[in-house]
């Protein structure tokens, strides 16, 4: 067990999450997702978690493993066209993970997802949570537009509101 990581997680309270992602920032993220979804036939979901649950932290769960778990919990995998993308933010670790459903992942490579994550993480390190989140959503929109063009009869299956875990 990593003591420094454990302390970071224990000290990352809901107040810190609310300070980083204020109501205005959450509203801006929701609007960015709506605008993003209008550009393509993909499904984008945004989730923020302040710290890992105690058992996960004790077991040394990685942000990536937790993101995959959240991908399942939020049912991002359950879209009709296998075109869901989760942006997962673990605030205590200052880590961003993108998990894409198999239909999207087959067309957009890991290198592109990692580039978006690194750009968002850099913005977050500078305290620019709103700008980093919106920039990440816009970058994902560009990737999805290439492989999943907008469709007139497309039904949005995932909520646009960011999930706070």
UniProtKB/TrEMBL annotation:
Gene3D superfamilies: 3.10.310.50. InterPro entries: TPM_dom (IPR007621). Residues 20-142 form the TPM domain. PANTHER family: BLL7265 PROTEIN, UPF0603 PROTEIN YGCG. This is Membrane protein YgcG. The lineage of its organism: Bacteria, Pseudomonadati, Pseudomonadota, Betaproteobacteria, Burkholderiales.
């Amino acid at each position: 067990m990593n003591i420094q990581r454990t302390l970071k997680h224990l000290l990352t309270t809901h107040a810190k999450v609310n300070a980083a992602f204020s109501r205005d920032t959450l509203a801006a993220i929701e609007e960015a997702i709506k605008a993003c979804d209008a550009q393509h036939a993909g499904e984008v979901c945004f989730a923020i978690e302040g710290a890992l649950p105690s058992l996960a932290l004790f077991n040394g769960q990685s942000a990536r493993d937790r993101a995959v778990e959240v991908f399942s919990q939020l049912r991002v995998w359950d879209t009709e066209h296998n075109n869901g993308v989760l942006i997962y933010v673990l605030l205590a670790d200052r880590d961003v993970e993108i998990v894409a459903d198999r239909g999207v992942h087959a067309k957009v490579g890991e290198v592109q997802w990692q580039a978006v994550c690194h750009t968002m993480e850099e913005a977050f390190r500078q305290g620019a949570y709103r700008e980093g989140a919106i920039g990440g959503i816009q970058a994902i929109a560009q990737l999805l537009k290439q492989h999943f063009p907008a469709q007139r009869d497309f039904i949005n299956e995932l909520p646009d509101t960011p999930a706070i875990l």
